[in-house]
Amino acid sequence: MADLRRELWDRYVGQLPPPTLADLTEEFVDEHVPPLDRRDIDESGLTANQRQWRDHGFVLKRRFIPDEILDAYYKARSQLDRPHGWDSPAPYMHVPEIRDLGLYPPLVALLDELVGEPMAMTLNLTGWRSTERNWHQDDYLNPPAVHGWYSAVWIAVRDIDPLSGPFQYVPGSHRWPVLRRERVRLFLTPDERNHHDWPRKTERFVNDLLDKEIAERSAEVRSFTGKQGDVLVWHARLVHRGSPPAVPDTPRIGFISHFTGVTHWEGTPELATHQGGGRYFVQDIPLR
Length: 288
Prior knowledge:
Strand content: 15-25%
Distance between the termini: 46 Å
Radius of gyration: 19 Å
CATH superfamily: q2cbj1_9rhob like domain
Strand order of the largest sheet: 2-8-4-10-3-12-11
Number of strands: 12
Number of helices: 10
């Protein structure tokens, strides 16, 4: 009977009305999530960074990355004449300047402090234009067992032009109901679910639902127009987007890197250690 219900669902899902946010989200159980996300913790011993993270879902650090590391990455990235950067999701496997930047030791220490276990680099976005990826949370893009043991960073490699389509985020939205991968994918057709870029397929309903949620909560939307060396670290469940540029093709010279807790990556991956103690998951993905 269950197989028949699923067959009928898959046959007609494309004809169903758009889902509600409640259809796509759930609440997490404390035992599964990082310490700072649990409902009942002793806040008296939290650092300023941890309190900011718990309350607002992001931490902003000004002039955090030294110029020499930024300049080395800028030089390496400038050799690639492609506005949207490398197509590979893990160019850190091939470009040492990416490892030096994304695994800068004070940044690694900050990530570990916020999430509560050693974090390892898993993904880089190296475009110098806005992604224009609309409102979403990162958690639903991950395997279910990650459960928020995940974070991402946005580094201003050069000063960010406000006309370029800055990274935008909604403070406190990490406390909203959590989009879940299996629930969101349920509302895709079978062909869409099997597509390599299935997250893009979900935008047709996720975007509108989060737009509506922001409006109904009268939630604040902030833009990150960082100066060179500024770093924004955001929570796996923080609602965010790459906003549309006010002037098309305005460069946005930044670097984005995502990190997963070392015990929460799916399967049994190989870990490598960078100089200074930073970690990254070994992935057999060519540079392209």
